[in-house]
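Re: that backbone. Tokens:
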């Protein structure tokens, strides 16, 4: 019978020397996702909150799960905190690395995919959920040429593969909006100055990650990866006194398990965003998942009909 493991990260407050504003809803986001995981039968690690959510702790928790899980099993990873981007990624359609802010570092999408998700065995399902700014592909990275779906999520208007490649050749970059000092307390983004401050505040750790990513040996994704995000790559995700806007809607639509498959789940969550929240568009990335995974009831551990029967 399939088993599920989960890791939940919530970072309201990063290292003091980073100069990053404190958030409000990330702890409760992580705790609520932990509750869902436990209710659904996952072997859920207690949430990693603020100072506990270090690079070493998050990496080790993910690698521990990767070592334990076999084909048919599922891993759930949730993150709530600041998100950002760095305009240096020539391997992605939008020319950006999307980034999560842990307590002690910026964790880029490429590191997650190539150095962590790649450690999971073939046949394992990975479900990632991110409630942060610029989160569309922060849990999976978006290589050039994946087609209209990625274009739509990255703000490129659903461009065809040919159009994307033309943009790559011309070296044009889409217009992105930086978080400003004025609006930073309303969302989960950080300014360019703050992003530089994080790297300056912990240079050795960021240098180590940069050096690890120079090697591509063993970096191929073997597991099936499905990600749910609070917003598109070029959008902001709202924070909240209790939960983030996305997590609050997710909990409402989830309704203790009374919902269908992942695409329908995200569509219903999206319908709840209106008024001031209408600039935030939750997204689903299905390019690394098969139809069986996508069509499962959200947070299902059982791998398929045979496993559902318990045989």
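Recovered sequence:
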């Amino acid at each position: 019978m399939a088993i599920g493991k989960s890791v939940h990260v919530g970072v309201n407050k990063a290292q003091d020397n980073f100069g990053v504003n404190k958030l409000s809803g990330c702890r409760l986001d992580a705790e609520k996702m932990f509750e869902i995981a436990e209710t659904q039968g996952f072997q859920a690690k207690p949430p990693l909150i603020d100072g506990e959510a270090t690079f070493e702790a998050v990496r080790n928790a993910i690698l521990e799960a990767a070592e334990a899980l076999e084909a048919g099993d599922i891993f759930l990873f949730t993150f709530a905190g600041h998100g950002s981007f760095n305009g240096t990624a020539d391997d992605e359609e939008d020319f950006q690395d999307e980034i999560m802010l842990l307590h002690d570092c910026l964790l880029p999408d490429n590191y997650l995919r190539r150095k962590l998700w790649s450690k999971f065995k073939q046949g394992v399902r990975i479900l990632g959920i991110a409630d942060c700014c610029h989160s569309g592909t922060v849990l999976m990275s978006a290589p050039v040429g994946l087609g209209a779906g990625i274009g739509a999520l990255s703000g490129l208007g659903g461009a065809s593969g040919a159009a994307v490649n033309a943009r790559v050749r011309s070296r044009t970059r889409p217009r992105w909006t930086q978080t400003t000092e004025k609006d930073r307390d309303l969302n989960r983004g950080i300014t360019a100055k703050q992003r530089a401050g994080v790297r300056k505040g912990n240079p050795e750790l960021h240098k180590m990650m940069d050096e690890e990513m120079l090697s591509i040996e063993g970096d191929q994704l073997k597991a099936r990866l499905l990600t749910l995000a609070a917003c598109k790559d070029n959008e902001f995700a709202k924070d909240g006194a209790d939960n983030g806007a996305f997590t609050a809607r997710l909990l409402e639509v989830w309704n203790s398990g009374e919902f269908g498959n992942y695409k329908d789940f995200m569509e219903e969550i999206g319908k709840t965003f209106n008024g001031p929240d209408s600039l935030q568009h939750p997204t689903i990335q299905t390019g690394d998942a098969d139809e069986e995974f996508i069509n499962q009831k959200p947070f299902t551990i059982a791998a398929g009909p045979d496993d559902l029967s318990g045989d």
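Confidence is low (pLDDT under 50) at residues 144-182. Strands lie at 4-10, 43-44, 48-49, 74-80, 83-86, 97-101, 106-108, 125-131, 224-229, 283-288.
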